[in-house]
Specification:
- It comes from Jejuia spongiicola.
- The protein contains four helices and eight strands; from the N terminus they run αββααββββββα.
- The chain has 183 residues and is of the alpha/beta class.
- The strands form two sheets. It has a six-stranded mixed beta sheet.
- A hairpin with a 4-residue loop joins strand 7 and strand 8.
- Helix 3 crosses helix 4.
- The longest helix is centred in the N-terminal third of the chain and has 19 residues.
């Protein structure tokens, strides 16, 4: 029983860390679009310029999208079948954890009063940034949105982790294109 109690904090941390790394994805698309006919793409500068993120992050996202589309057999073109646009949203999430157990508790022990492990009335507060990335695919001839992928997850401020996280977001979103394809 004591081993189980000692393993609980580790298990909780493992669950927390693994849940943070996931990207939740949703897609929507025009059921009448002929996705098999789209072979070329270009980036829709007007739409991309409106995304409220740093130019560095825009370039990271665009490189990741380009890599995914090239892997799917698309060709970048001056006269594309699809225009690719994106936009983002982010929000700060504040987590307050108050389990009243941990270091810093004041109490009486075998040798009198002192600090140490025990009950602690100070809550733990952390903030994280939750981001949403939308990838829009627009039929270039009709100027109509035919597919939209949305990925939601937590972001990192660390540059190396951020680049990996962006690639993960884009890969998870683009897994869902084209609609109906078994991945």
């Amino acid at each position: 029983m004591k081993k189980t109690l000692k393993a609980l904090p580790f298990l909780a941390l493992l669950i927390l860390v693994s849940s943070c790394s996931s990207v939740r994805v949703a897609v929507d698309y025009d059921k009448n679009a002929k996705f098999g006919e789209y072979k070329t793409f270009a980036f829709f500068k007007t739409g991309i310029d409106k995304a409220e993120i740093s130019d560095l992050d825009k370039r990271r996202i665009l490189r990741a999208i380009e890599a995914e589309l090239l892997t799917k057999g698309f060709t970048k073109s001056e006269n594309p079948d699809l225009l690719v646009s994106l936009f983002t949203k982010s929000q700060q999430r504040v987590n307050v954890y108050n389990n009243a157990w941990g270091y810093g508790g004041w109490g009486w022990g075998g040798f009198g009063p002192g600090w140490g492990w025990g009950w602690n009335n100070q809550p733990s507060v952390s903030t994280r940034t939750q981001g949403v990335l939308y990838v829009d695919l627009i039929d270039a001839s009709k100027k109509e949105l035919v597919w939209q992928g949305m990925g939601t997850g937590y972001l990192s401020q660390n540059m190396e982790k951020k680049e990996l996280r962006i690639k993960e977001f884009v890969a998870k979103i683009m897994e869902k294109y084209p609609p109906g394809a078994q991945q």
